[in-house]
Amino acid sequence: MKFGGLEFHVISDGRLLLDGGAMFGVVPRTLWEKKLPPDSRNRIHMAMNCVLVRAGGKNILIETGAGDKMNPKLRDIYGLDGPRLADGLREHGLQPGNIDIVINTHLHFDHAGGNTRREKDKLVATFPNARYFVQKAQYQHAVQPSERDQASYFEDDYVPLMNAGQLTLVEGDTEIVPGIEVTPLTGHTIAMQCVKLTGGGKTAFLTADLVPTTAHLPLPWIMGYDLYPLSTLETKKKWLPTIVRESWLAVFGHDATTRAAYICEKDGRFEYEPVEID
What we know:
The chain is of the alpha+beta class. The protein has a single domain (2-274), classed as 4-Layer Sandwich (Metallo-beta-lactamase, Chain A), CATH 3.60.15. It has helices spanning 20-24, 29-32, 72-77, 85-91, 109-112, 136-142, 159-163, 229-245; strands spanning 2-3, 6-19, 43-55, 58-62, 101-103, 116-119, 122-125, 131-135, 167-170, 174-177, 180-185, 192-199, 202-206, 249-251, 260-266, 269-274. The chain has a 7-stranded mixed sheet. The radius of gyration is 17 Å and the shape is globular. It starts with a strand and ends with a strand.
């Protein structure tokens, strides 16, 4: 899809299965299973959607999926069938060395696991020529997470990048390159950053884990994984009306069927119109 001189594509790193109850928090199963039926282990099927952007002569990758470093036990728990990101990049004529910038919305394993790879006995950047960007407060939390969310963080995904001098820590709203801006939002974790892509008078907004799937559009449908669910609620009450009012294209980080959509508000409910995007 093109917005003026900015071009972007959604590439999945593969399937992710997470507990349906955890994904919907206090929402009863009798409601959420109508939208996302669980498997025999109560897991719902999601995707790890990454976004490839071409802007200003640079190749920018937003999110890197889970990568390939997890052991067989964890791969089974999370139902991983990837990694697939490299295949998707090849379809667009790119190799890992062609990526100039990587943006992580946050450092949970399903968003940053593909940041690094094993090369013999050491961990190296999957994208050797890239500069990686994440919020400073998110990195600080990731290297010392709480007992509640430590299972979502793996230092192998980001500490090697810091040690190699490839990780840039930003603070607050930041323009990474013209047309690509990150803004930190409160709720899911500390300093998760959503991404705005702007060009040709149009804007796409990557909702990350604020609204991970279209099933999470209702304001109270909030993940049990969120550190600060009431902050997530207030953030959704601010940003969803903005997306509607400004006619932004919403890009969902975990939806396996609707990767992007325009959102409207009707009778106090948020509805969506899917948009095909490769």
